[in-house]
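Hi U.,

Before I forget, here's the chain from the pilot set. I'm dumping it here mostly so it's searchable later in email.
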Amino acid sequence: MILDKIKGPNDIHDIPLSEFPALAEEIRAFLISSVSKTGGHLASNLGAVELTIALHNVLHFPQDKLIWDVGHQAYTHKILTGRKDGFQSLRQKGGLSGFPKRGESDCDSFDTGHSSNSISAGVGYVLARDLQGQSHTVVSVIGDGALTGGMAYEALNNAAELKTNYIIVLNDNNMSISQNVGGMSSYLSALRTAESYTGMKLSVTKSLNKIPKIGERMVRTVRKTKSSIKQLIIPGMLFENMGLTYLGPVDGHNMIQIMRILNEAKKVEGPVIVHVHTQKGKGYIPAVNHPDRFHGTGPFDVKTGKSVTKKATPDYTDIFSEVMCRLGKENEKLVAITAAMPLGTGLKAFGDKFPGRLFDVGIAEEHAVTFAAGLALGGLTPVVAVYSSFLQRAFDQVIHDVCMQDLHVIFAIDRAGLVGADGETHQGCFDLSYLSMIPNMTVMAPKNAKELEQMMEYAVSMEGPVAIRYPRGSAYQGCAEYQEEIVYGKSEVIHTGCDIALLAVGSMFETCEKVYDSLCEKGFTPTLVNARFVKPFDQELLDWIAATHKQIVVVEENAVSGGYGEHVSGYMRACNHGIDILTVAIPDRFVEQGNVDDLKTDLGLSPSDILRVIEEHGR
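Structure:
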């Protein structure tokens, strides 16, 4: 196999160009086989195989810097830098990361996982290079979906000031996770039709270069001409008008064309956009037909493309989806917003039933939140459904545009807590901390599937901003016999005792039930509380617990700093309650990838760990 010749960075330079097509097919076959066993991001990686091979052919690692936006399309880059054997442990604890990671290889230039930041990082790399008198090449690869994020345009505006070479590869596959939306998508669609321009430009360039003595000078003059023929052929000329040289579009699966245009781009004295058109999922029909399903997939059968893991019970996203459809039928003012993830957040069904009331704003979380503020001021009840990790991107908008105006915007925060295989960039460990510090915000967390329904119903009936956070994975169906009516700011006492009070926050309730049972077996008489509200928290309940118990144990799937436990401890100290307080939460560090249960054990969040800490703390 040709692939066996790739042992480390730059080995591709020893492979003849004639073998590149076969190498691309071998890489595709390897990715399909490997990801079918481990799960991972498949469609985006299959679409970027030839582009990555071409980039590695014209670059040298680790001297040159290649920055991947989001990074879920970097599997081929990992293979070509000698990490093929690590794919058996892809996204597993202690194994190969699913994203570029500087600690994993010095060929990875930037730790990524979120969108629209690669150009900003690239500009930084370029200026650092120039200030230090260095000469290596810097390339940022950004997808067309990421160009809906405003940060990309802030960076493009800054990049236009550069006077030295900087290459931005626009990997245009007409997809982010779901189908692209908005004006930029339409603009790029128009560019894709401009193949006649691309062919003509290359033809003219070749012809001029053949003219003795003056040919190359004429080419340079044409390149520098602001009022070029592009203005007549490509609509808008957005990139050129921003001050960036535009090359393309080029077939992203024709490696010879890509390498030719990349080598041309390296000669440009300034920032240059190389527009590459690729097909998401290329080479594997199920991924081509269902790129959203194969964006991030679990293990699957290669022949059929069907998942090999069966969903035993509905997950929290399913529950949210069902209640949104029901509430949408009952309340015509209820509208929903997603940032390019209608399927992932469970809003697709709502959009199918109420197509005029679901707004997909693309990868633009900041805009999504302020847009929701406008909808609320206009008399509607907007629900912003978003992953916990991605809501961080709109922290300023949550404060200034929603909470400061005390607007009735509902934040449905999926994948809160430990997410697992996607690692540090996707763990939802901070939402309780950053949301509970904001005035006017109400923060809730359900103990089970039924309570998520109740909380959504309650949130719609409320006034002001409210956030409901729930975890990834199967929705807990237990404790259904305890389902008191929700009262603002009040917790739910499940079992009343007198020794130890277990205060469980949302996703950790099921774990605390097991700890409760173990404590009872050991002769304790514990109290088990479903916190329900992280903000405002139930001060009356805390006063009663302080007067009747010896110890409070707060258990939450959130960073210890700024979390519910810290607020409870602060209240107890302020009130001079002498009760012993123990907070079990995620330590002050970023959490790497791995199975969620394994991660909980590592972090001391398993039932046995919590029981042990309680016993040790009470000695």
